[in-house]
Structures are given as C-alpha cells and as structure tokens.
C-alpha cells in the first residue's frame, strides 16, 4: 500500500477526530473507530491487554471525571505503510487543565495500527504511554493520577509557573506580529473577493458589447445601402426603401445607446465593488445589492466551472427598508456565502470526516439539480438575508469551527479559510449576527441578520 498525500490527510483527520472523542469521553463515537477485535496494549501489569469493550469502560471510568481537561500539544505525527496496515506514531506534550489554567504534565507516546475495512479505516491496535512518567505501584499509567485533577499538583504548579513566564513573552511577541499582519490579511481577502468577481463582470459586460458591435456592423451595412440608393438618378431612387433604411439605422442606434448605457452601468458597478472606500456607511437598497451579487457571483462561479448549471431562486421582501451599511463590505459577505453555497450544491463529497460523508453510503441524490435560494425578510427590528443550498450539508462536528480563521473543508488550494471569518467580523461590526442551520444531505442555510436603524 502506498501512503499518498491524500491518504495521509484522510488518516490524519480520522486520527484527530478519534482523539477528540477520547478527550471528551464520547464513548460511542470513540469505539466506532475500532475493529471488533481491537486490542489496547497497556503499560502496567494491570492493563496488559484491553478489548474494545474494556477500552470503552476504562475511558468512562478514568477519563470521564476530567473530560475536556486533557490536551495533546506540539504533536509530532508520523505515518508509514506496512503491508495492508498503516502505522501511526505520535509524540506530544500532554497538558492538563488545573483550576482553569492549562499546565504541562508530561511527554506522551502513542503507537497505532490501522487497517482498511470495506470503505473505512479502523484502529486494530493501540498503545499509549508516558515514557518519562514514574507510576506508583498498583497504578495504571497516569490516567488514575489525572482522575479528579489529582495529578501531583506541586510539580504541575512549578511547571505551570515556568511555562506561563515563557508563554507570556511569546504571546506578547505573537500579538505584535498578529496586529501587524491583520490588516494585510483582510486586504488580501478583499482582493481575493474582487478577483472572484472579475470573471463574472467580464461575462456580464460581454453581452452588451456584443450587441453594440453587432448593431454597429448592421448599421454600417445599412448606411452603404442608403448611399447606393441615394447615388441613383432622380426617378430611379426608391424613397420608400430609403425611409425604411433610415428607420432601421435609427432603431439600431437606439439599441446601441441602450446597451452602451448597460455596459457603462456594469463598469460603474465594478468600480463601486472594487473601491476601497472610506468605510463609511451609506443608505443602501439591500434587495438590489443581494440581486447584484447573486448574479455576479454566479457568473464568476460558472466561468471557473464549465458546464455547471445551478437553479437560482430569489425571494425579496418589498417592504425591506433601506439600510445604513458599508455597501462594499456587506457585498463581500454575500459574495463569500454565495460562493460557498455554489460550491456546496455542486460538490459530491466533503473532505472532513470522509467515512461519514462517503457519497457511496450517502442518501444524497447526486442527480438532483443544484439549487441556491436568496431570500430577504423584514422582521421589524431586524432585516434578514438568507442564502440556502441543497448540498450535502455541514457536518455537526465542524459547524462550530466554520467561522474560525483558516478553517476550510475545501481541498487544498481552493479556499483560504478566511472568507467566513472576515464575514463574521464585518457583520459583527454592523451590530448584526451570522447564523447557520444545516441538515445532512439536505443542505445549509446562512442567515445574515442586521438591526434596523430607528430613524429610517
């Protein structure tokens, strides 16, 4: 078996989810990663071998009292394929939460054997030990010491004090670096959003330009016909034909003028979307803004995904009041959410927790037509903009992470993981909130909720 980059990433995600269930004592989920003949190899004589069920009982008894208070940090994870097995060896620092403060406990080493079972990878054997930790006679490795937070408080406090002193200095340096790069990240994401619009705008402006060019060519031919007719001697000229030609030219000029103004409006809109601006709020028609970005975002997505066909539905509340907003910023929020919706309803898999969202085992109908719906609603004290898709939905395990910076479920190179994070910050700066609902295989809906200004 070859350890490819994709396989390595898949196993790493599975491995991390496994330990998340361990640290939070989600026994059912924890045991779901194991084969029926799973063996846990212990460190002391009292825990030489654990079966799958024994490992689950041990988890509830010994880790249960300190669920959520154990973490692995500075993790060094290595993988190697051996015949039909995958060996994962990890060394990390174990931290324990004492009185609300995380303290270093000891080094931990984990050795795991995984085997492909049908479509899923399962743990066959595992050994977890604290190689540098001395245990008292009759105790199992570390976990009983950790139980009820009785983990050699004096040593831990000493370690905590030293760590905090070092960490404080590191944090101060990190904060300075973060502040200096924050504006650059935000500007980079804004420029990325502008780049996504470019293809859509180019497509939009091409249509009126084609009309202008076509009517101009036809008009030039009509002018030549008119010249020929007028060059004839009196008595042979067809004045009726001349009148018809002049009428046709006049109609063409009207159409050229109409489509020229349309192209001009698109260019002005492009400049409006691309300008950095002062960040000042302006009175804005939310329905019009949502319609503009729905159209532009879709054309941009289509230009990069040939053959894609998404059904667009818009349902705008005519009673929506105009809102004092930073127009370009709210536009970028809509663009980010719409791009995610288009991606979600045209994608047949999600890169996080692939065993759960394997398309072969999914109820998701890949034949149903992709659909995105944009709705606005006046709720009195607030207005709501919702964007819904009929994709695979957002896994419950990551729903709380989607607004975190750099978190993305898209394949490497297809997403920065900053779009929803910055969108959350923009809406928060407007005094609003972003909420999301999702059902497996049914799709997701993002709600942008903004407060209505009382003076409007």
Describe the structure.
- 45% of the residues lie in helices and 23% in strands.
- It is an alpha+beta fold and 456 residues long.
- It folds into three domains: 5-151, Roll (Nuclear Transport Factor 2, Chain: A), CATH 3.10.450.50; 198-274; 282-451, 2-Layer Sandwich (Heat Shock Protein 90).
- The strands form three sheets. A six-stranded mixed beta sheet has the order 2-1-6-5-4-3. Strands 8-10-11-13-12 form a five-stranded mixed beta sheet, covered by helices on one side.
- It is elongated.
Oligomer: single chain
Largest sheet: 6 strands, mixed
Task: Tally the beta strands.
Answer: 13
* Beta-strand content: 15-25%
Topology:
Elements: H1 5-23, H2 27-32, E1 34-41, E2 49-50, H3 52-63, E3 70-82, E4 85-98, E5 101-117, E6 120-129, H4 143-146, H5 153-230, H6 239-274, E7 282-284, H7 286-304, E8 311-315, E9 323-325, H8 327-346, E10 371-378, E11 382-389, H9 419-429, E12 433-439, E13 443-451
Helix pairs in contact: 5-6, 5-7, 7-8, 8-9
Quick gist of this model?
The chain is 45% helix and 23% strand. It has 456 residues and is α+β, with helices and mostly antiparallel strands.
Keyword list:
456 residues, alpha+beta, Nuclear Transport Factor 2, Chain: A, Heat Shock Protein 90, six-stranded mixed sheet, five-stranded mixed sheet, 9 helices, 13 strands
């Amino acid at each position: 078996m070859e350890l490819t980059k994709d396989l390595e990433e898949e196993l790493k995600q599975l491995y991390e989810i496994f330990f998340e269930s361990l640290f939070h004592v989600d026994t059912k989920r924890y045991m779901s990663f194991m084969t029926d003949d799973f063996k846990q190899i212990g460190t002391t004589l009292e825990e030489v071998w654990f079966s799958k069920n024994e490992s689950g009982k041990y988890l509830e008894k010994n880790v249960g009292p300190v669920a959520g208070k154990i973490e692995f940090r500075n993790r060094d994870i290595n993988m190697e394929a051996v015949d039909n097995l995958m060996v994962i060896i990890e060394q990390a620092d174990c931290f324990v939460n004492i009185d609300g403060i995380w303290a270093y406990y000891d080094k931990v080493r984990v050795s795991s054997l995984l085997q492909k079972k049908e479509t899923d990878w399962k743990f066959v054997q595992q050994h977890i030990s604290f190689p540098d930790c001395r245990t008292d006679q009759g105790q199992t490795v570390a976990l009983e010491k950790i139980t009820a937070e009785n983990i050699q408080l004096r040593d831990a406090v000493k370690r905590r004090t030293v760590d905090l002193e070092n960490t404080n200095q590191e944090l101060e340096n990190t904060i300075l670096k973060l502040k200096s790069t924050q504006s650059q990240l935000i500007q980079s994401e804004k420029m990325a959003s502008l780049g996504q619009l470019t293809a859509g705008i180019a497509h939009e402006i091409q249509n009126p330009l084609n009309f202008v060019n076509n009517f101009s060519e036809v008009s030039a031919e009509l002018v030549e016909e008119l010249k020929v007719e007028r060059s004839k001697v009196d008595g042979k000229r067809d004045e009726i034909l001349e009148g018809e030609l002049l009428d046709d030219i006049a109609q063409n000029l009207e159409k050229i003028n109409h489509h020229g103004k349309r192209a001009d409006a698109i260019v002005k809109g492009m400049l409006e979307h691309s300008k950095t601006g002062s960040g000042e709020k302006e009175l804005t028609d939310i329905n019009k803004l949502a319609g503009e970005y729905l159209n532009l975002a879709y054309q941009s997505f289509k230009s990069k995904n040939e053959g894609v066909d998404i059904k667009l539905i818009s349902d705008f509340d005519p009673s929506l009041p105009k809102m004092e907003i930073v127009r370009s910023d709210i536009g970028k929020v809509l663009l980010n959410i719409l791009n995610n919706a288009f991606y979600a309803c045209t994608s047949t898999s999600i890169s996080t927790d692939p065993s759960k969202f394997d398309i072969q085992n999914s109820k998701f109908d890949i034949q149903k037509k992709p659909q995105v719906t944009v709705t606005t609603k006046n709720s009195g004290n607030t207005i709501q903009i919702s964007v819904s898709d009929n994709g695979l939905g957002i896994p419950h395990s990551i729903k709380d992470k989607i607004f975190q910076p750099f978190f993305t479920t898209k394949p490497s190179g297809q997403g920065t993981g900053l779009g929803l994070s910055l969108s959350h910050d923009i809406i928060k700066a407007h005094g609003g909130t972003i909420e999301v609902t999702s059902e497996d295989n049914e799709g997701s809906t993002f709600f942008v909720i903004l407060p209505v200004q009382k003076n409007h």
